[in-house]
From TrEMBL:
<protein>
    <recommendedName>
        <fullName>histidine kinase</fullName>
        <ecNumber>2.7.13.3</ecNumber>
    </recommendedName>
</protein>
<keyword id="KW-0418">Kinase</keyword>
<keyword id="KW-0067">ATP-binding</keyword>
<feature type="domain" description="Histidine kinase/HSP90-like ATPase">
    <location>
        <begin position="241"/>
        <end position="338"/>
    </location>
</feature>
<dbReference type="Pfam" id="PF07568">
    <property type="entry name" value="HisKA_2"/>
</dbReference>
<keyword id="KW-0597">Phosphoprotein</keyword>
<dbReference type="InterPro" id="IPR035965">
    <property type="entry name" value="PAS-like_dom_sf"/>
</dbReference>
<dbReference type="InterPro" id="IPR011495">
    <property type="entry name" value="Sig_transdc_His_kin_sub2_dim/P"/>
</dbReference>
<dbReference type="Pfam" id="PF02518">
    <property type="entry name" value="HATPase_c"/>
</dbReference>
<dbReference type="GO" id="GO:0016301">
    <property type="term" value="F:kinase activity"/>
</dbReference>
<dbReference type="InterPro" id="IPR013656">
    <property type="entry name" value="PAS_4"/>
</dbReference>
<dbReference type="InterPro" id="IPR036890">
    <property type="entry name" value="HATPase_C_sf"/>
</dbReference>
<keyword id="KW-0808">Transferase</keyword>
<keyword id="KW-0547">Nucleotide-binding</keyword>
<dbReference type="InterPro" id="IPR003594">
    <property type="entry name" value="HATPase_dom"/>
</dbReference>
<dbReference type="Pfam" id="PF08448">
    <property type="entry name" value="PAS_4"/>
</dbReference>
Amino acid sequence: MEPIAHFEAASTLAIVVSSNEPLLFLSEDQKVIAASASFCRAFEIDPATVSGRGLSELGEGEWAMPKLASLLKATASGAAQIEAYEIDLKRPNCEMRNLIVNARTLDDGDKDRIRLLLAVTDVTDARAEARIKDDLVRDKAILLQEVQHRVANSLQIIASVLMQSARRVQSEEARGHIQNAHHRVMSIAALQRQLSTSRGGNVGLRNYFTQLSQSLGASMIEDPNRLSISVTVDDSAVDADISVSLGLVVTELVINAPKHAFPHERTGTITIDYRSAGKDWSLSVTDDGIGMQKGSDAPKAGLGTGIVEALAKNLQSAIQLSDADPGTAITISHQENTGLRADLPEAA
C-alpha cells in the first residue's frame, strides 16, 4: 500500500473507532475491519472479538440477517444503497430493539478494494414514545366522543322535560318561551351528536346541516306537509369549533322563520345554503314566506337576534337581510382579509 493510502486507511480506522455513533467498517465480503466503541457498548459486544469476524458472526449470531447481507452486497457492487433501512434486532435474553441502518461505500485510499461504512441508530425508545402518544391521542378522541354522546343524550332528556312543561302551562306566552327553549336544546343535542361521529377534527357540512335540519324539523314542525326544510351545501368541511357556531346560527334562523315568515298556518319552505371558495364562505337561510315587514308590523329584536349577531362576530362575518321575492333571505358571509361588520336588522 502506498504511504498516502496507508495514512488514509489509518485515519478512517481512527475515526470509526472513536466515533460516538454506532459504526461498523466492513470489507466487501462483510468482514469487520473496525467497530466504534459506541457500537460495542450499545450491543454488548467485546471489542477484542470484533476485528476480522463476519457481520453475521457478531454477538451470538443476531446480526445474521440474510436481507441485510444482500443489501450490503448490492451496496458494495454499486447496485443499491441502504438508506434508513429498518431492522429488528433480537438478542438472547434481551428485548427486541428497533434499529435504522444506513450504509455506503467508503474510499479509504486504496482504489483496488471496496469498503463499507454501516451506521446504526437505535430508535426503540423513540418508537415506544410515539406509540404511547398515539394511544393517548386515540384514547382522548374516544373519550371526547363518548362525552359528546352523553351530553347529546342528556340534552334530549332536558328537551323532553321542557316539552312536558309546555303542555302543562296555561299562559300562551310562557308556552311559547318554553317551546323556543325546547327547540334550542334539541338543536344543540343534534350538534353534539353530529360532533361525536366526526373524525379528524373536521366536520362535513352537507351531512351536518342535513341532520341538523331533520332534528329541527322533527322538534318544531308539526305538519311536514305545511313546512319543510331543504339543504343545499357544497363539499365544504370545517373545524369542529366553526361547525358549532355555524350550526347555532342555522338553528336560530330556522327557529325564527316559522314565527315570522309563515304565520296563520301558511305553507312554505326554509332553505339552508352554504358555499365556499378558498377561505371565503357564505351561509344563508331563506324562506318563501310573507317577506320583510316594516314599521309597526316588523318583529322586535329578541334573544335569537343577539345570539346570531354574537356568533357572526365570532366568525368574523357580516350579516345581510334581503328580499327573496317571495320571502326573506338572511346571509352570513366571511371574506378573508376584508373588514366586515355583523349587523342584523331588527326584522331578523
